[in-house]
Amino acid sequence: MKLMNSSASLEERREDFPALGRRRNGMPPVYLDNACTTLVPRQVMESLQECYANYPACGGRRSRHWFAEEVSDRIEGNPDKGIKGSRRILAEFIHAGSENEIVFTLNTTHALNLVALGFPFRSGDVVLLTDKEHNSNLVPWLRLQKAGLIRVDYTVPDDRDLFDLEAFEGKLKNGRVRLVSMGHTSNVTGYTLPAREIIRIAHQYGALVLLDSAQAVPHQVIDVQDLDVDFLAFSLHKMCGPRGVGVLYGKKDLLGRYLQEEEGGGFVLEPVFLGGGTVADATYSSYRLLDPPECFEAGIQNYPALIAAGAAVKYVQQIGMERISAHEGRLNRFLTGELMNRYGDTGWFRIFGPQDAEQRGGILTFEVKRPNAVRIAEELSRKRNVMIRDGVFCVHSYFNERFGQGWTLPRSHDEHRMVYRVSCYFYNTVEECRIFLETLEEIFRERSYL
Ligand SMILES: Cc1ncc(COP(=O)(O)O)c(C=O)c1O
Prior knowledge:
Layout: H1 10-13, E1 30-31, H2 42-54, H3 66-76, H4 86-93, E2 102-105, H5 108-118, E3 125-129, H6 139-146, E4 150-154, H7 165-174, E5 177-183, H8 195-204, E6 208-212, H9 224-227, E7 231-235, E8 246-250, H10 252-255, E9 279-282, E10 287-289, H11 303-319, H12 321-343, E11 349-351, E12 363-368, H13 376-384, E13 386-387, E14 389-390, H14 396-403, E15 418-423, H15 430-446
Parallel strand pairs: 1-13, 3-4, 3-5, 5-6, 6-7
Antiparallel strand pairs: 2-8, 7-8, 9-10, 11-12, 12-15, 14-15
Bound molecules: pyridoxal-5'-phosphate.
């Protein structure tokens, strides 16, 4: 595996990403869709390749042979051989107290569903969300509401679109909130919630907190113990990692604790999928589960990807999470300043969320309210290989509420309004932002918006 110099400049890191070396029509890619998924460095691909080539066996200490040992060592670690496994690497990355608090999942969505389906809700419990949840942290709760088990409620932000702690506390005082489940960093606005305060208040009222940290963990230092969060979910593919790996963090006494009979029995969080790898023993009429995290990881796993997840974490750690946040902030300030200077007074251009770029990490989402405002993303890609996202970013509920029911099928209606999202990561450059800005300006002129 190629060694990485931790003091290398961010520009030099670009060489680690083969996709950035591609050319179409003589021009490089300008990849600004990182909130969707990130590019993958050679180091992560080499880790995958190494596993498939050299030890394509099962993990989970099922088989006791050479190849299986090499897989299990790289995931569960082997102190005798000085190998730190991916589970430990992930635990240290988010500052978990124990690697047994790290459950590997397919992605954030899978992790959130594990909580939704495994949590011992009682009829009438309330799950409290924000007004801007990704479908992955909305639909699983709506499903439970539809089944008559819980009620879903929402907190509303203040008029600067910042989290309103007072309104939040009001909800906790009035309702039967059992679980607070919130997008830690919004994939629409890039705004990061005051999670520590939220968790402190929720705990005062006896509610547990699940953070959907899909957009937070890849971009900033996360310390689950300092946050005192109960559950937290994220995906590796949003941080240079392999596709198909996510993490559900759960406090040890929640993942592993059996409830007393008078509390209803069973786990605080019940494993939803059972089968191979989840049980210590079984008879024709009964089974005994393994301790967490194993009881949550049913069946043969994507072992090469779990190993490569460790490589991805090492990669971003060598860059430094503070450095990543700072760089994204610089790019966002530049983009926000340029866009607001050019179009801030037009009346048809608007940035979503807090107006201060400092509050929006590496995400900048804007609305264009002009005739034929759709398909700008396609044109940016066609003209200069600039890749951004348009549409509703899997946050249909928010856009339906704001723009009117039915707006969320933008390609099939002729509303003269569209929303676009630019999202940066550490390998993006100011030059790339300039290419985006110039091409956008060209499109606006061609469409006679200016
Ligand atoms: C805030 C948020 N939550 C959840 C998800 C779902 O992530 P995944 O598709 O990896 O499950 C995303 C992905 O865009 C997201 O931005």
